DNA sequence: TTATATCGTCTGCCATACAGACGATCTGCC
DNA sequence: GGCAGATCGTCTGTATGGCAGACGATATAA
């Protein structure tokens, strides 16, 4: 139909605003579809992932890492605790804080989710060859490593210095 | 840097849920910061981009492309029209529909925004070398081309067949 | 003409996020 | 030890935003 169509993409600048948003929307939809067991859909998947894989010391750390308000984190975790997926444990070192740990059920659910999400991702990236998918993941990971919104780089140092 | 913490990432599967979300959050924050002239921040930038660069015939097409409800699109465009950035024109071919076109001011504002967003992107991807950034953009674009919730795949074929 | 579907708008409801206050606790200082 | 200020997690109230549903106007098919 249109003779000038290729330029209807967002031009050569700002791939993000166009491609990435659509990609992430589609990804989120697929994750939501696979997240019957979890509250909050994609958010829930990210939360449980952070709980299991990223050893964040407290609720507040969890919240700032995920970019969620702490008051929101409260009832988010209420839902997860109600489902028996995570537990709030008292932190012996700081009795104000709660250590969030995944229950066995939580770990099982996450493992199942991860398998489904991985499959959905492969399907989502069907337009890319396997090598390109790996490349994309690596580039994303490397790009994301530089993003520290309100993170203190000293924390990493502190963690590195604390043995075990 | 750190010897152990890299494994606190989401493991080898599902880079998306972890890296990409943080990356997009940071990107969105930077776009918001650069979007003083636009309503709705990042959303507004995406909307204006779609209006100018993607020639969508109607409000509904705009809405489905951006994944926005049509009722939301109404007051979103109200705000944009109020700012003199876009206009609702009657579609002579279908008097129910409105053609959304950017005003001169809208095009100027978008152009300025795109420059700022491009700069922010470069800054955001500072961890990657220029070649890697280009590679990332190309991979994202190609991956996003496959995502057609209600898109016609024939368009992709048409684009591929047209020699750049 | 009639019936049905679509477009854009409007109304009302509901979920959700955020500001602020609160008790409990930690930290630093005296 | 006692005190002040900061932090953690929770609770309450508010406001912002999205979505379902209905509506008039219009297009399309029978």
Account of the protein in words:
Two copies of one chain form a homodimer. By secondary structure, chain A is mostly helical. Chain A has one domain (24-147): Orthogonal Bundle (Arc Repressor Mutant, subunit A), CATH 1.10.10.10. Helix content of chain A is 61%, strand content 9%. Chain A contains seven helices and two strands, in the order ααααββααα. Chain A has helices at 15-34, 41-53, 59-66, 70-82, 104-124, 130-145, 153-161; strands spanning 86-91, 94-102. Chain A has a two-stranded antiparallel sheet. In chain A, β1 (86-91) and β2 form a beta hairpin. The radius of gyration of chain A is 19 Å and the shape is globular. The model of chain A is unreliable at 1-12 and 148-164 (pLDDT under 50). At the A-B interface, α1, α2, α5, α6 and α7 of A face α1, α2, α5, α6 and α7 of B. The first copy, chain A, binds a DNA duplex (30 and 30 nucleotides) through α4 and β2.
């Amino acid at each position: 139909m249109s003779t000038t169509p290729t330029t209807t993409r967002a031009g050569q600048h700002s791939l993000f605003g166009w491609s990435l948003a659509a990609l992430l929307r589609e990804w989120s939809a697929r994750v939501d579809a696979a997240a019957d067991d979890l509250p909050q859909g994609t958010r829930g998947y990210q939360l449980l992932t952070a709980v299991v894989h990223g050893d964040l010391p407290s609720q507040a750390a969890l919240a700032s890492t995920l970019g969620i308000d702490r008051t929101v984190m409260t009832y988010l975790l209420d839902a997860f605790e109600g489902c028996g997926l995570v537990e709030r444990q008292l932190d012996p070192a700081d009795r104000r804080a709660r250590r969030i740990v995944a229950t066995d059920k939580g770990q099982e659910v996450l493992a199942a989710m991860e398998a489904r999400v991985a499959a959905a991702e492969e399907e989502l990236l069907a337009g890319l060859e396997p090598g390109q998918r790996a490349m994309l993941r690596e580039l994303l990971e490397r790009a994301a490593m530089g993003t520290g919104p309100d993170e203190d780089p000293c924390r990493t140092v502190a963690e590195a210095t604390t043995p075990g």
